[in-house]
């Protein structure tokens, strides 16, 4: 009888949690739709970006649910929305390790991959892995220097090493949180105040219009120069142009389509 009551009492909490997760998913999809063309953006970009936005929002949901689940009350109905301990444990582990993988591996690799200018995906992947390996080598090098300093100053002590690593991890997260929150608390209200005045916004747009027009003219001139270079390369049949002939043909077709 106790198991039946317990299962029936947790069912509304599970339903509300699923509805909250569904709402978060819809909001994240709307944000992605606002900033990205969903139909043309590759899935290997969309899925990690979706989880990069979805997981932090789920953490905001998990914290109060976890606190309510651990509350000591006489009646389970007074807890509010709560979940079984096993469900919370699995949820926190999935959230933590996915966030860890996205932060340190998946998103940096995708960022360098999108910035690479190679034609073949394999070359872009190798460039991305090389750039991230250099970054991690610098981080581990700095950590090794700090470890040597710690050992020479306080000796080889596991407790001091553990506390130092934990302090650095908290310091890293707090610095980013303070910077992002400070920037958001200043930038977002300032933008709202500026956009509230229609006349002031119109004046700012009028001031920026000449600069934007000048940049557009410069971009058109640069585009014309690039189109001339592509047309010259398409006529060459020797040297390095032969190795990249397929790529040059694609650029020629794209340039002709842009010109028409």
From TrEMBL:
Gene Ontology, cellular component aspect: membrane
Pfam families, per the entry: LMBR1 (PF04791)
Coiled coil residues, start to end: none
InterPro entries: GPCR-associated_LMBR1 (IPR051584), LMBR1-like_membr_prot (IPR006876)
Transmembrane domains' residue ranges: 14-36, 43-65, 94-114, 135-152, 164-186
The UniProt record lists the keyword Flavoprotein: no
Compartments, record wording: Membrane
Keywords: Membrane, Transmembrane, Transmembrane helix
Main location (coarse class): membrane
Membrane topology, record value: Multi-pass membrane protein
PANTHER family: G-PROTEIN COUPLED RECEPTOR-ASSOCIATED PROTEIN LMBRD2
Family: Belongs to the LIMR family.
Name of the protein described by the UniProt record: Uncharacterized protein
Organism of derivation: Verticillium longisporum
């Amino acid at each position: 009888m106790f198991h039946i009551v317990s299962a029936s009492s947790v069912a509304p909490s599970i339903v509300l949690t699923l509805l909250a997760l569904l709402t978060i998913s819809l909001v994240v999809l709307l944000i992605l739709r606002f900033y990205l063309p969903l139909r043309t953006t590759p899935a290997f970009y969309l899925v990690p970006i979706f989880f990069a936005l979805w997981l932090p929002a789920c953490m905001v949901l998990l914290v109060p649910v976890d606190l309510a689940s651990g509350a000591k009350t006489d009646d389970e109905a007074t807890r509010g929305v709560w979940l079984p301990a096993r469900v919370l444990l699995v949820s926190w582990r999935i959230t933590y390790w996915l966030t860890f993988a996205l932060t340190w591996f998946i998103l940096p690799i995708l960022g360098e991959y999108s910035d690479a200018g190679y034609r073949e995906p394999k070359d872009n992947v190798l460039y991305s892995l090389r750039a991230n390996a250099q970054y991690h080598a610098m981080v581990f090098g700095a950590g090794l220097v700090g470890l040597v300093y710690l050992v020479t100053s306080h000796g080889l002590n596991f407790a001091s090493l553990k506390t130092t690593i934990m302090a650095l991890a908290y310091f890293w997260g707090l610095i980013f949180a303070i910077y992002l929150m400070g920037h958001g608390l200043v930038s977002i209200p300032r933008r709202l105040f500026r956009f509230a005045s229609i006349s002031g916004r119109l004046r700012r747009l009028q001031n920026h219009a000449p600069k934007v027009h000048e940049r557009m003219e410069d971009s058109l001139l640069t585009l014309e120069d690039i189109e001339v270079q592509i047309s010259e390369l398409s006529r060459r049949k020797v040297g390095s142009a032969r190795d990249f002939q397929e790529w040059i043909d694609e650029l020629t077709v794209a340039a002709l389509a842009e010109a028409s």
